Amino acid sequence: MYRTRSWRRIIRRTPGGGVLVRYEKRRPSKAKCAICGRELHGVPSLRPYQLAKLAKTEKRPERPYGGYICPQCLSRGLKEAIRSTVSF
Length: 88
Description:
This protein is of the alpha+beta class. It contains three helices and two strands; from the N terminus they run E-E-H-H-H. The chain has a two-stranded antiparallel ribbon with strand order 1-2.
């Protein structure tokens, strides 16, 4: 099972002087914006069991659609929404 390269090999030295090889899954890819596909900042790229240990505020930015779309797409969408609702 561990012979595939989907498992990351971590070499650890034990206090007794031996060498252990530990295996762990590789880190997932960075979160992407749902609209433009740009990399999202402020969203950690961790495995689900590591994400569960983080506080809610550490998982995504605190703004509308934080962790789902980038701030540039958010501002563009808000401007378009305001333009469409306001009629002179």
